[in-house]
Amino acid sequence: MSDTDEFSIIPLEHKHTAQIERWPSRHSAASALLKTPVITAGPSPDNYGWVAVNGDEVLAVATVRLNQERVGYLNCIVKPSSKRKGLTNSLIAHILNQAPVKDIVHLHAAVEPANTAARQALKEHGFTMVGNDQNGYLEYARHKHY
């Protein structure tokens, strides 16, 4: 594995999805740092994605999906062998400064109750717990204040 101390965050492209799909336990709840995203490569008016990479190796992926009411949903997963390296914190900080996300009034994220690292990362970036979603995940929200 590459040293994850050095990585870049770039837009998600189709070439990245093949690597992500090969990650061990990709669909396991234990492998998702936040909640497993629906991976859609390339930006669209309602979906945005970024990856943390070291060279050509994808270490983490994050997406923001907007619903019809323009509420954003942040999802992030880290490659199992790259966890506990601060990737989620870096991805969230990067994403919150991106033009398509900066103006989202309501941004939500869901996290497994036992995932204290993800919960802490969300809190550090202004998210507060607002309840549970239909799957039993803790739901966090970040509301833009004017």
Uncertain runs are 26-38
Mean pLDDT over the residues = 82
Shape: globular
Oligomer class: single chain
- Main sheet properties: 7 strands, mixed
The Rg value, from CA coordinates, equals 14 Å
Order of helices and strands: EHEEEHHEHEE
Overall strand count:
7
Q: Can you give the helix content as a percent range?
A: 10-25%
- Distance between the amino and carboxyl termini: 43 Å
Major beta sheet, strand line-up: 1-2-3-4-5-7-6
Strand content: 25-35%
Counted by DSSP, the helix tally is: 4
- Category by helix and strand content: alpha+beta
Summarize the structure.
With 146 residues, the protein is α+β, with helices and mostly antiparallel strands.
Structural key phrases:
globular; alpha+beta; 4 helices; seven-stranded mixed sheet; 146 residues
Describe this structure in words.
This protein is of the alpha+beta class and 146 residues long. 21% of the residues lie in helices and 32% in strands. The chain is built from four helices and seven strands. The chain has a seven-stranded mixed beta sheet with strand order 1-2-3-4-5-7-6, sandwiched between helices. A hairpin with a 2-residue loop joins strand 2 (47-54) and strand 3. The longest helix has 10 residues, at 87-96. It is globular. The chain starts with 7 loop residues before the first strand and ends with a strand.
